[in-house]
């Protein structure tokens, strides 16, 4: 666009003109000025996107007005209301009609009213109708509003009516003056180059007929209908003077009325209305004045009653209902329902607020189709009495003066029937919250005709106590407030000291024992579930008498954890007599178990030995990694369910892995019946929580299981943890893996020990190193030696199991190995399952990128690192778990790997897990490292120097 020359002066004006189809519109124009400063004949229509070059002539208000007027320009109007591109001439000739005009014009007028308000005293002109010159006649907007009075004169023959206008206290002649109504929605009148607006709502069409007419005549034949509609509406909104009929103004004190509308199987509600004397009005609308018409036939006389309503007072009553928890559902009929954020019904609301409403002056009425609904105070009294194995819940529902045994409402609560007929015939509507809060009370009751609950359902009582004045005995109250658990002394034969949170877990075990409950210890991995359990078992050993027929406890766990438990038992509870019920040569006679304090076995063996194990009665049955029984149709769950014991415990860092339904079988094992049947649990909890995101169901489930699940996260107990915790995980090789390992070991042992090693030459050291390396690879995963090997690895499975547990906690893990081949097996596995990870070995070109991805990408939780590539120079404090997949000759190198995570800047506690294949060279390397500390702690230790230091006996031990 050509830039305007600085020498040319210009001015922005607003031009009112009549569009041949759209009616009066306003346009912004830039008009060039003559040398003397007067407006020239040269002008240009401007828009928001073309006006910038004339910025010097505009102020901030002008930009707003121009943007508003863009929207009433014909091409913009066509574009908005007609989706296809079309020339304006074609649109107005072929498509535009009266129906479209009636739809579009009111919307345009709303924008024009805003524009006139903003224009104020800015230059405003009337556009020339012939040549379209934008500044033809200067207009002014009258500074004061105009008033209008409608006159009616009724006689025996007809009624005549006409308006009179007043401006600044003087009557204004407007008839036959070429005046025009330019806006109808809220009338603006153009006369003698002045625009007049009005001091009250006035449609332009009520004024238009009189621009060229003195009055309008209404005949007697049509007057009744005319009075009922047009005249009543006019009196309601405008000032009217009448001869031949009366207009009375009534001002009465009003009464707010709430009418209950009862809808069976639907949304019952209340309607708000106001009684002004004999007249009733629904809340809503903008009518400050309402008009009622009466006709006295004998006198042939009409009386219009003009009732002045107090809008401010009515609004106050409306706001009072909102403050009390209602929301307006229908503004037309003034109906209200409870706010959807609350669970109560309109009946609950009325019962709760009735006294307050009556005090505030409200009347309460009913429109209930013949039924008389009880509106009054409703409450529930509950008392709980403790028996040996159950709770007896004694409850009464109070409806005003009536005290009803709560058990009589059982079918109503379970089948969600809201109507309950009281002795006087009134219908009480059971509060909505009772269905949500007490349904489980009836569902879990032991009998239909009474409210007796199994003791395991203490959680339900704990939940309802939050909603009810619940009275309990002191012992029961103590059980309900189970957070305050008695301190239990540590067993004498326990080696070590429990940390405070572990002591709390140990105390909790005894709380469960005292009240004959089972429980799930769901602490994060690394917090010592094993140690807490061993302390309990040692305490049992010390407290149970020799004559007790059930002293033996059974521990069931995944195969990969058998030896870890054995080692931990040796360390912390060495006096426990432990039997590993594993392998093909295991005992087949259950009597043998009675000689031991603890029998350790696997889920697989329980399935195989179900018949034999089911004959035993154990002290404790303990499941480790109890998520293994999460599927109630699995063979493991079915086999474990038939086993018998005095107490039951489950241990799992991830009791809920994929679905809420995972918890059912674990809770059913520890506390049978606690969560009802599996199908009931699915319907009542799983579907509402997972598919409907129902928080109330989630809270109810939490309340039920809360006493029986103890979970502490690493973050919660961080202050009690040492900066770094190291643990060795002993892994059992698979049968195929073990077979290959033993064969290879025999070959090297025979070859090396028979001849080569005696010579102590360099070649023999290389051969020895090769042999040891191959054995270490087989201990990791035979696939490192045989590419086509498919039979699995015990260590590989153990690592994946622990990664599953950690990943559910959202923590980051460094995984170190000195074998790139070993890392690649994990790499391939993660890629196959689309698990994101970072990777670093000696061939990685962009080390910084791999590190940065791990540090900054929240989706990447795993970092595979070869010890040679990542042992130094990395700062990875984002990780709080370190997995060392294989032992190194030099512990200093191992320590360097650990220090990638445990270094300055680390604010979390770091857990280090070293994975060792049991009964392999790895286990012996660890033992030998400890014996040969002088070499292991030297400044430089290579594999070769370590091998050189080995004696003949050392070699025999390694290859034994």
UniProtKB/TrEMBL annotation:
The keyword Zinc does not apply. Residues 510-673 form the Helicase ATP-binding domain. InterPro entries: Helicase_ATP-bd, Helicase_C-like, P-loop_NTPase, SNF2-like_sf, SNF2/RAD54-like_C, SNF2_N. GO terms for molecular function: ATP binding; hydrolase activity. PROSITE patterns: HELICASE_ATP_BIND_1, HELICASE_CTER. Keywords: Hydrolase. Pfam families: Helicase_C, SNF2-rel_dom. Residues 798-947 form the Helicase C-terminal domain. Gene3D superfamilies: P-loop containing nucleotide triphosphate hydrolases, Tandem AAA-ATPase domain. Transmembrane segments: none annotated. This is Helicase SNF2. It comes from Sphingobacterium paucimobilis HER1398.
